[in-house]
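Reply to dn_fold:

You asked what the input looked like. This is it:
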Amino acid sequence: MFSNQRYISSSVDDLPVKTQLFLWHLIDSMPASVAKAPEQFFDLSVAMMNGKPVQRIEHYQKIPAFEQVVFMETDGSIFECKLTACDTGTISLLARE
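and this is what came back:
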């Protein structure tokens, strides 16, 4: 899963490239013990760490169940949105829900 070419929908154009690449990295670095589902979900929100706003990213899939929450420092661009990465077998697509 997710080993083919990757694309983003135009709805994700405003998301910084650094964040887009990090989301793909989260999929790539999932534990080998977890089978990757063809749909991966991301909830992006704002969190505070040491008095500074950071990007909170909840990455999950439904079956088999998997969830992780990570925090990412940004250059000031913090997003609140839901994203889905889909693997169709020929392409992978990152799109806003």
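The helical segments are 17-28.
Hope that clears it up.
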